[in-house]
């Protein structure tokens, strides 16, 4: 098991993890959502590609990835069948020392499992706002870790 930097040939694995994971973060919403593939989501894709991306790999298979840009954690996605096995925790623990300022991230306010992970590491909600995913409104929250 290791965490390593992204290489261009990792893109298919990242797209697959996103496809299998994105709607899970919205499953606690009262609305229904249709997946917008990452490569077709111009804003999220360009933000990801300008970030530093790291992958969790074991036995030559990628199980999750995380991305950061400056102080912002822009992505942390793990295959659903790999959750609860420490993959997200290891990725978060890898990123935190790399961030010089106060780490921040954005999460759907209804995504209690993800928020619970972040809160265990000291993140707290600093802002609640409305955004959209694939043109459907979502309440989101900014979480910050004060160093």
Defining traits:
Aminopeptidase; alpha+beta; 7-stranded mixed β-sheet; 147 residues
Provide a brief overview of the structure:
This protein has helices at residues 11-21, 42-49, 87-95, 112-120; strands at residues 2-5, 52-58, 61-69, 72-78, 104-108, 124-133, 136-144.
Please give the share of residues in helix.
25-40%
Rg from alpha-carbon coordinates: 14 Å
What is the overall silhouette? globular
- Top-tier CATH class: Alpha Beta
> Biggest sheet, strands in spatial order?
1-2-3-4-5-7-6
**Spatial gap, N to C terminus:** 28 Å
Please indicate the count of domains. Answer: 1
Major beta-sheet overview: 7 strands, mixed
Structural summary, described in words:
The protein has a single domain (2-144), classed as Gcn5-related N-acetyltransferase (GNAT) (Aminopeptidase), CATH 3.40.630.30. It contains 4 helices and 7 strands. It has helices at 11-21, 42-49, 87-95, 112-120, and strands at 2-5, 52-58, 61-69, 72-78, 104-108, 124-133, 136-144. It has a 7-stranded mixed sheet with strand order 1-2-3-4-5-7-6, with helices on both faces. The longest helix is centred in the N-terminal third of the chain and has 11 residues, at 11-21. The chain starts with a strand and ends with a strand. The mean pLDDT is 95.
């Amino acid at each position: 098991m290791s965490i390593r930097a992204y290489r261009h040939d990792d893109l298919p694995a990242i797209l697959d993890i996103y496809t299998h994971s994105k709607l899970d973060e919205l499953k606690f919403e009262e609305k229904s959502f249709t997946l917008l593939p990452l490569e077709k989501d111009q804003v999220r894709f360009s933000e990801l590609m300008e970030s530093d991306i790291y992958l969790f790999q074991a036995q030559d298979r990628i199980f999750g990835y995380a991305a950061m840009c400056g102080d912002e954690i822009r992505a942390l996605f793990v295959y659903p069948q790999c959750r609860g096995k420490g993959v997200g925790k290891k990725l978060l623990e890898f990123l935190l020392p790399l961030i010089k300022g106060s780490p921040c991230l954005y999460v759907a306010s209804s995504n209690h499992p993800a928020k619970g992970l972040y809160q265990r590491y000291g993140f707290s909600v600093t802002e609640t706002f409305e955004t959209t995913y694939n043109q459907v409104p979502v309440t989101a929250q900014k979480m910050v870790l004060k160093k």
